[in-house]
Amino acid sequence: MTEMLITFAWGIPLLLVIVQLGMLYRTKATLNDATFRAAREGSLHHAYTAVMEDALVRGMMPSQYAVKPGNKPSLLDYELSKEKMVIAYKTTHAMGAKVEVVSPTQAIFQKIAKRSWVLRKCPSKNGCPHRGSYREVAVNKRPYQIPNDNLKQRSTHTVKAGGVDINIQDANLLRIRSTWCEEMKVPVVNALIWNTLDSLGGLGSPKGWSRCKAMGALHGGYYLPLSGHSVIRMQTPVQCEGNITGNKKCKNLN
Asked: Which of 118, 141, 120, 146 is nearest to 132 (CA)?
């Protein structure tokens, strides 16, 4: 009985810690894949963070979906739950998922981005030059974007932007960082881990910790910030989200 009491005092908490860390490891592995999926969506949609955050939430679905005891898994139910989760993370759970573009930055965009050529279809051939079907859009209505075509043939000359030397090829490498607030669900241990980390200031991640702390205050529970990184070549030109015809105050660029 004495040996059991001694073992129980440290053995059970240790077992609970192992279970909680195992769940966090599974979520982190899922987050790494979801971050890559988010980066891929960003490469196809001008590096818009709104698109990437939707892709991140969808990619995290495997770690969030569970079938109630006695029910059978359903692909339709899985897809519906995925879309519900996307809506939730745009509204009530908006603090729980974030995608930041590490590169290119706002300074790089301002230095390298150029106005693109845009053609508009004419209502009639009489309204177009030389009786054609299209005409150029006015200069002030053309979007700023980092050129993405013929990169092999473009100059590798570097320019200084934001304290770094960068060329147009490197500016087309999309680097993102994701933050995901994962709820720790193992009783006792979740409060112990959270309070320990909170006393240490979140261990070097004050912004992520603040987001997850706010989410816990709103919804209850203990949320831990997890982070993922990914790099991918842009397949579309980087544009200024929220200000497409300008090159400042872009929602997607820091």
From this structure: 120
